[in-house]
Design brief:
The complex is a heterodimer of chains A (about 270) and B (about 270). With about 270 residues, chain A is mainly alpha-helical. Chain A is built from 14 helices and no strands. Chain A has a single domain, classed as Orthogonal Bundle (MetI-like fold), CATH 1.10.3720. Chain A is about 75% helix and about 0% strand. Chain A is globular and about 75 Å long. The relative contact order of chain A is 0.14. Chain B has one domain: MetI-like (MetI-like fold). Classes of the chains: A mainly alpha (about 270), B mainly alpha (about 270). At the A-B interface, α1, α3, α4, α5 and α6 of A face α1, α3, α4, α5 and α7 of B.
Chain lengths: ~270, ~270
């Protein structure tokens, strides 16, 4: 009974990883598996400033987006923790970006950030905050892609943290209040420790997810201008599929594996404490 | 505590709601703008002359029919395979004496966290060898590998929290595996399966990497792949794409309206309240 799941999932993944490892050590190209070239692909990449910039971009994109999503998700969870009139509608509105397909959300942002009658420039110009339309995706490519990421992913943190908040009993908070704990103290000593597992889980999911992100960057900036918003997946895509250097592309994709392993260890520690 | 949260809520929530909805609202407005009129003039956030031209044009375009059909096919196939494999694997891990079952669950969880961007290069090669490129089958074979880890995890953790007598007594009465699953488990298991199903649909509607890598021909493309390609190809008439986007989102929005709470609960029980 395990066989279908094992073959479709573990089998596919194991086979693909082995093939990828081979590609990264070969000069494979379109339609050919290539010959063994040792670490030549990795050496080639290590000598490219593009590659190091791409790595820095990926870390910043993933890290900064995650921090902002955690902060906004916490605000969302705390605001929705207690019942109030209209709570369901507010919850749905805040959840919407998360279920709105990321391709479509990115397309909407593509036009909002555009310098040709884009929605953002229209507002800023009418408020007299900018005189001329700004090409946001070109001027601030990393901020642009991170913004779409935060817009899309904040609700996941909100949901996870809300579930964490619900596990705190009101009695506990009331007891703390009776004992004279101020709001800040309650927050730091009761709420924060309770939320830690949910927050850590959100961080692991977000960091890993963002390391492998593709759609947002590919559709918004294509890694440009001049590689300024290139991240691992778009860089691997460009090298392997646009330029046809499959071996180099595979080596780039494998860069994600160390991050993955670290995240896994964190996740297991987290769940092992159950 | 109550009063403070109540006041802070009305400072935090309005801007978050506006930002969440704004891009989707913009796209909805753009879908109803006259098709010939470029987006480059007028108020990007409103139109005085709403029209259904974009939708009418879309329905006359045979390509749109292909995209809808392909998406339905891929979603249906992914759902069927993903649900069935997850159900069987979850059952086996929870009730049968599978050696190392705890480790197998952890391996499934590990593959859930693996970014899909690690695998797309070797998978492309494998699918090419199987002559499955440019066919929805490429996606029906690869999407389940993303559904099954999460699905098995959710089914397994749900089954583990059921009273063991439920299945034991059925088996003692001589019920086979099939009867046990269909008659005893399905009636109580459906919230978990709904969560897995929604997750599967979300994968089909959110993936851009696999669909744009494995499928090049427009007539074989899914809705998301096709719309993403249209935007990056600098289309002359984006109005139709926005109309298509709105239509593609409707089923998801409906699903979400009905299942958002169940999904959020399933997600958090599946992961946090382990």
């Amino acid at each position: 009974m395990l066989a279908p799941a094992a073959i479709l999932c573990l089998g596919t993944i194991t086979y693909a990883i082995v093939l990828e490892a081979w590609f990264s050590l070969s000069n494979a190209g379109p339609g050919t598996d290539g010959v063994f070239v040792g670490l030549a692909n990795f050496q080639y990449l290590a000598g490219l400033s593009n590659f190091w910039q791409m790595l820095a971009n990926t870390g910043i994109y993933s890290g900064a987006s995650t921090v902002v999503k955690l902060a906004l998700g916490l605000a969302m969870a705390l605001s929705l923790a207690r019942p109030f009139p209209g709570r369901r509608i507010v919850y749905a509105a805040l959840f919407l970006p998360f279920i709105f397909p990321v391709v479509l959300g990115t397309i909407a942002w593509f036009f909002l950030l555009s310098n040709i009658n884009g929605g953002l420039n229209w507002i800023l110009q009418n408020a007299h905050l900018v005189a001329q339309p700004v090409e946001w995706k070109g001027r601030l490519p990393m901020v642009s892609v991170a913004t779409v990421n935060v817009w899309h992913g904040t609700a996941l943190f909100g949901v996870l943290l809300l579930a964490g908040l619900r596990s705190i009993s009101t009695d506990l908070l009331d007891a703390a209040a009776v004992d004279g704990a101020g709001r800040l103290k309650q927050f730091l000593h009761i709420i924060v420790p309770y939320l830690k597992p949910a927050a850590l889980l959100g961080v692991v999911l977000s960091v890993l997810g963002n390391f492998g992100d593709f759609a947002i960057v590919e559709l918004l900036t294509r890694g440009g201008p001049l590689g300024r918003s290139q991240i691992v997946s778009t860089y691997a895509f460009e090298n392997a599929l646009v330029s046809g250097y499959i071996g180099v592309g595979a080596a780039i994709a494998l860069v994600m594996v160390p991050v993955y392993v670290v995240a896994l260890v964190v996740a297991y520690r987290l769940l092992g404490r159950e | 505590m109550k009063i403070a949260l109540g006041a802070a809520r009305w400072v935090v929530l309005p801007p978050m709601i506006v930002l969440s909805i704004a891009p989707i609202f913009w796209m909805a407005v753009a879908a109803f703008k006259p098709g010939g009129l470029p987006l480059a003039v007028g108020n990007p956030w409103w139109t005085d002359r709403p029209t259904l031209d974009n939708f009418a044009e879309l329905f006359q375009d045979p390509q749109f029919g292909h995209w809808v059909f392909n998406t339905a096919l891929v979603a249906g196939g992914t759902l069927l395979i993903g649900l069935l494999a997850s159900l069987l694997a979850g059952y086996a891990l929870a009730y049968l004496d599978v050696p190392y079952s705890r480790s197998i669950v952890l391996v499934f969880f590990a593959t859930y966290l693996l970014p899909q961007a690690v695998l797309f290069i070797p998978l492309l090669r494998v699918l090419a060898r199987l002559h499955l490129l440019n066919s929805p089958a490429a996606l029906v074979l690869t999407y389940p590998s993303m559904v099954i880890p999460f699905g098995t995890w959710v089914v397994w953790s749900f089954l583990r929290r059921l009273p063991p007598d439920l299945v034991d007594s059925a088996r003692a009465d001589g019920a086979g595996v099939y009867a046990t699953i269909v008659d005893i488990l399905l009636p109580v298991l459906w919230p978990a399966l709904a969560t897995v199903g929604l997750f599967a649909v979300a994968i089909v509607f959110n993936d851009y990497l696999y669909t744009s890598t494995f499928i090049q021909e427009s007539s074989s493309q899914t809705i998301m792949g096709a719309l993403g390609a249209l935007i990056t190809a600098d289309i002359d008439n984006p109005g139709r794409s926005f109309a298509a986007a709105m239509l593609a989102t409707t089923p998801l929005a409906l699903l979400c309206a009905f299942f958002a709470d169940a999904f959020a609960r399933g997600l958090s029980t599946g992961i946090i309240e382990q």
